[in-house]
Amino acid sequence: MARELPIFPLPVVLFPGATQPLHIFEPRYRELLADCLAADQRFGITYVAPPDGPGIDPMPPPGAVGCIALITATEALPDGRSDIITVGERRFTLLEWVTRETTYRVARVEEFDDEPADPAEVTNLAGGVRQDYQRLARAIGTLTDRAADDAALDDDPEHLSLPADRAGVVNLTAALAGLVGERHVRAAPAERLAYAMDGLPTHRRLPRLAVLPGTRDEVVAVVRLLADLGVPFVPRGAGTGLSGGALADHDAVLLVLTRLNRILKIDVANRSAVVEPGVVNARLSAATAPHGLHYAPDPSSQTACTLGGNVAENAGGPHCLKYGVTTSHILALEVVRADGRVVTLGSAGGEPWGPDLVSLFVGSEGNFGVATRITVRLVPLPRAVRTLLADFTSLRAAGEAVSAIIGAGLVPAALEMMDRSCIQAVEDSVYAAGYPRDAAAVLLVELDGRNESAVDEEARQVAALLTGQGARQVRQAADAKERERLWQGRKKAFGAMGRLSRDLVVQDAVVPRSSLPVVLETIAAIAARYDLVVSNVFHAGDGNLHPNISFDARDAAMAARVEHASAEIMATCIAAGGTITGEHGVGLDKLRYMPLVFDGDALGAMHAVRRVFDPEERVNPGKVIPVHACREWSGTRNVELGTRNIAVGSSAFPLPRSAFGPEAR
Ligand SMILES: Cc1cc2nc3c(=O)[nH]c(=O)nc-3n(C[C@H](O)[C@H](O)[C@H](O)COP(=O)(O)OP(=O)(O)OC[C@H]3O[C@@H](n4cnc5c(N)ncnc54)[C@H](O)[C@@H]3O)c2cc1C
């Protein structure tokens, strides 16, 4: 028979016979409690998913199933809040919401009894519950430093459900707070929202919670606890990544490493340093400069990004043309594996021994574990530096000049290109560097070395080549101040492009240098066809393109055009003999392109390597390898569909696939 019932929507499922303690503090639920205590002591609990943001008040839809909660104990607290104990009675179906003059919600519900369960199925399910409970017992053992005692578990499924029910209320937040301190666990929706994106605005995920350990030992303790509970987690540095790599799903914990920010050692004699992963890139070079040394990889984000993130992404930067990307500068790593074991890869001395596991880890995008200590190579600061700015009236000529310089056997420290749209954004911003506004493109070329006259000679040769390739003007920075200004425009170009539109997708691909002119023209044609503003600022010497698409994500039609244009740009780069990422990684964003450059066997091999480090695939799950495209995935049973999986070969992979999926804003 249908009846009216006050409803308390909660992110818990109340079972008949199970106990549910509640802390009542919201005014509307205080009113609900008072009314229930004055009546038959009963209200309904229906499950709702936790809200995705502040101010969102989720409501279970008609048809949802809930359970009547009988209040069995109440403790009124002095300030009007209450602690209560409830016990589940009968289940009900929510028929419809009704309007009453109460601040809480009331619904018409129909009670029903559960179907008797199949004993075989119950025994089967009890096995799973027992396993989960034992994991929890181990986790509590980790927390309390006591051996886990699971001998007390009852074999009877009904009795077993009691400890399992208690397990359900063990609070992960509290457990983590016990390890790192309450203020270093971010569980409130508004706090978690701060971690919902990285530098790429097209992907958005709200983590289950964020935990910020302050020491290596705290990282180990947190990772062990998560391992015992079987909870997936995602390492995160500064969140400047541009492929969605540092985002965690609602079931995963974000392990934020920014508090591990100590430079542990600077070894001048051996030109190395040992740092924690949260050290900001530029801070390390600032600290070593008084010793005449620096850490060479210099991502344009270097004033914000962390060394841990650089290692995970194998980050590059303007000066990596001459000095090499991150992998050339990491000597050793201390890594916390997914099960909490700590391993050391490589050696501080830098001598090679055994397989090069350091290089394997660098660029693994958080899939192999957490880097907690990083030993880096330091290189001497150059004594002589010359910086040239050349401007061109055509993109093609600028592209050809790049090939001419490298083809002549010259290796500048940096060789960067910016096109007109980017130049104008920079010149309109506070980072204005004095670039000629009417140029189709500028090249910023830096030469450095220990010998002034040798560097002067190289600068002269480069200037002659640039002029020969049609540069309108080649200007050399007169002093350190002018050089800094020219570089500021380049390094802050992404920020300056924030002026062009509300959202910006920074793309990343590599093409052979000799293809730059034609690829740049094709990108311009794609932009025109989709009626989009695409600006280019990139590491031209490496052929590492960054087409930046300005758009407004609130405009669905425009967002769809961005998606198609991005896919066509990637396809163009692949067709030119290039690949889908130079330095920003695959993360979430490039997953869909992986089968275009790797076949099922290659992806399967990558997957197998990942499983060596993390057999349960709990660190940064769902990133980098599109598992559905691995050959090994083919033929396995699809549990959801009850069919066999079929691997998606590169030619059949649907392109484009949504980057603006359900998680997009
Ligand atoms: C304006 C701008 C300019 C940029 N310029 C460049 C550039 O020139 N060159 C370049 O290469 N990139 C560039 N980037 C991209 C980005 O800065 C780099 O990828 C950087 O290495 C990310 O560091 P992070 O600390 O922000 O890492 P996050 O974004 O927090 O994380 C990136 C990845 O690293 C993993 N991770 C983080 N810390 C650890 C750890 N300790 N152990 C294991 N995994 C970890 C995460 O799980 C994630 O997969 C730029 C970004 C922006 C916004």
Report on this structure.
By secondary structure, this protein is α+β, with helices and mostly antiparallel strands. It has six domains: 2-112, Archaeosine Trna-guanine Transglycosylase, Chain: A, domain 4 (Roll); 120-169, no CATH class; 175-256, Uridine Diphospho-n-acetylenolpyruvylglucosamine Reductase, domain 2 (2-Layer Sandwich), CATH 3.30.43.10; 263-378, Uridine Diphospho-n-acetylenolpyruvylglucosamine Reductase, domain 3 (2-Layer Sandwich); 382-500, 2-Layer Sandwich (Alpha-Beta Plaits); 509-665, Alpha-Beta Plaits, CATH 3.30.70.2740. Strands 21-18-20-19-24-26-22 form a seven-stranded antiparallel β-sheet, with helices on both faces. Strands 1-3-4-5-6 form a five-stranded mixed beta barrel. A five-stranded antiparallel β-sheet has the order 11-12-16-14-15. Strand 27 (637-638) and strand 28 form a beta hairpin. Helix 11 (395-407) runs antiparallel to helix 16 (516-529). The protein starts with a strand and ends in a 21-residue tail after the last strand. Flavin-adenine dinucleotide binds at residues 198-199, 234-242, 245-246, 257, 277, 299-301, 305-306, 308-310, 312-313, 315-317, 365-366, 370-371, 494, 583-584, 620.
Précis, in short:
The protein contains 19 helices and 28 strands.
Give the arrangement of secondary structure elements:
Layout: E1 2-10, E2 19-24, H1 27-38, E3 42-47, E4 65-76, E5 82-98, E6 105-112, H2 119-144, H3 157-169, H4 172-180, E7 185-186, H5 189-193, E8 209-211, H6 216-229, E9 233-236, E10 253-256, E11 263-267, E12 272-275, H7 281-288, E13 293-294, H8 307-313, H9 320-323, E14 330-336, E15 342-346, H10 357-361, E16 370-377, E17 379-380, E18 384-392, H11 395-407, E19 414-419, H12 420-427, E20 441-449, H13 452-468, E21 473-476, H14 480-491, H15 493-497, E22 503-506, E23 509-510, H16 516-529, E24 533-538, E25 544-545, E26 547-551, H17 556-575, H18 594-597, H19 600-613, E27 637-638, E28 643-644
Parallel strand pairs: 1-3, 8-10, 9-10
Antiparallel strand pairs: 1-6, 2-5, 3-4, 4-5, 5-6, 7-8, 11-12, 12-16, 13-17, 14-15, 14-16, 18-20, 18-21, 19-20, 19-24, 22-26, 23-25, 24-26, 27-28
